[in-house]
Design a protein that fits this description.
CATH topology of the largest domain: Fructose-1,6-Bisphosphatase, Chain A, domain 1
CATH class of the largest domain: Alpha Beta
Largest sheet: 7 strands, mixed
CATH superfamily of the largest domain: Fructose-1,6-Bisphosphatase, subunit A, domain 1
Structural class: alpha+beta
CATH architecture of the largest domain: 2-Layer Sandwich
Order of helices and strands: HHEEHEHHHEHEEHEEEEHEHEHEEH
Number of strands: 14
Bound molecules: adenosine-3'-5'-diphosphate, magnesium ion
Shape: globular
Low-confidence stretches: 1-19
């Protein structure tokens, strides 16, 4: 890849603190016309669509000779109708201002933006190369002025081999409880806030300040914690995404005494990889099907930082089966010394549903 797509939104001249960076400006100034609720009742904003189009544009440009396969969250259905036209025009305007600010000559039409968004419709699968994009993960966090991340992974023949997480509101050092809530808004745009996590399979995981192209990436590793008494666990802010009562029960069973650190989005995988917390648990409603873009980038980053990411039954996540993950109950990620204990605790507290009668 000639240029990192996420850097389109992160050149030093554009983003030197204290000036707020474009995604942060969009987050702060988001109006009710700039977000809609999708058919599944989840929100999507001009930033989700804009980031998907701009990453698709950048990936396509980096390798024009090959056909891009991208498994991404958003599609153009809502924007293609007459009712979606004002939002499409706003997205196009945003993209074109980002491109111009980054010194790019290209300017896109609304129709080109629709086409770029729909490049994300690939089904993925066990063979070939597939980019996996969640243009804004944690949209509820984005709308609520909390944490969110831009997540790009690459699958090669069924294995996630590359992952990048852009986390504009995440402090580069230690995090406080309120960084998952009001603290994110208070510290957004300040010096020392904004992290980029990355990993290449076999080459380790790294963190670097998001707005500083000159900063050298620093190798990161998961915390070497074997005693649950000293472990901190992370979960979603949104209890509708992951049951807070189930995670609390598993933590109790395991002997975890510290309260949970609640954060939106895949920043949780970044924090686990950096050793800021040592456990991540996710127990969605039984009928919910997890999507690969919600986990691909974080998965390779945690593994390359020395951690394990499995379903609640201890089976490593499998990204080779298309757009969805097939999971037993939920997701558990931790350093190896804690991981087996967690799976055992989950089996006691939230055992797998009995197999249906034939
Ligand atoms: N009912 C549900 N159960 C579990 N996950 C859900 C859900 N509704 C939405 N999600 C997913 O939870 C993701 C956010 O995770 P988290 O809770 O860790 O912040 C959302 O990503 P998007 O914000 O990209 O849509 C969405 O894919
Ligand atoms: Mg979404
Ligand atoms: Mg997501
Ligand atoms: Mg998303």
């Amino acid at each position: 890849m000639g240029r990192t797509p996420l850097r389109v939104w992160a050149t030093p001249t554009l983003h030197a603190p204290p000036r707020a960076a474009p995604p942060q400006v969009v987050q702060r100034q988001l109006s009710s016309e700039e977000r809609v609720d999708k058919k599944d009742d989840s929100p999507v904003t001009v930033a989700d669509y804009g980031a998907q189009a701009i990453v698709a544009w950048s990936l396509q440009r980096s390798d024009p000779s090959s056909r891009l396969s991208m498994v991404a969250e958003e599609d153009s259905a809502e924007l293609s109708s007459p009712a979606g036209r004002p939002m499409l025009e706003r997205i196009t305007q945003l993209i074109n201002s980002v491109l111009a600010d980054a010194g790019e000559a290209a300017q896109l039409s609304p129709e080109e933006v629709l086409g770029l968004i729909d490049l994300g419709g690939s089904q993925g699968g066990p063979t070939g190369r597939h980019w996996v994009l969640d243009p804004i993960d944690g949209t509820r966090g984005f709308v609520g002025m909390r944490q969110y991340s831009v997540c790009l992974g690459m699958i090669q023949d069924g294995e996630v081999v590359l992952g990048v997480l852009g986390c504009p509101n995440l402090p580069q050092g230690s995090v406080a409880d309120d960084d998952g809530g009001d603290g994110a808004a208070a510290r957004c745009g300040q010096e020392g806030v904004g992290c980029l996590f990355s990993a290449h399979r076999g080459a380790g995981a790294f963190a670097t300040p998001l707005w500083d192209d000159a900063a050298a990436p620093v190798r990161i590793v998961v915390a070497d914690v074997a005693d649950p008494g000293g472990a901190r666990f992370m979960e979603s802010v949104e209890s509708r995404h992951s049951s807070h009562s189930t995670t609390a029960a598993v933590a109790r069973e395991l002997g975890v005494t510290l309260p949970p650190l609640r954060m939106d989005s895949q920043v949780k995988y970044g924090l686990l990889s950096r050793g800021c917390a040592s456990i991540f648990m996710r127990f969605p409603p039984p009928s919910y099907r997890e999507k690969i873009w919600d986990h691909a980038a974080g998965f390779v980053i945690v593994e390359e930082a020395g951690g394990r990411v499995t379903d609640a039954g201890g089976v490593r996540l499998d990204f080779s089966r298309g757009r969805y993950l097939q999971l037993d109950r939920g997701i558990i990620a931790a350093p190896p010394a804690l991981h087996d204990q967690l799976v055992a605790a989950a089996a006691k507290v939230a055992p797998p549903a009995p197999a249906a009668a034939p």
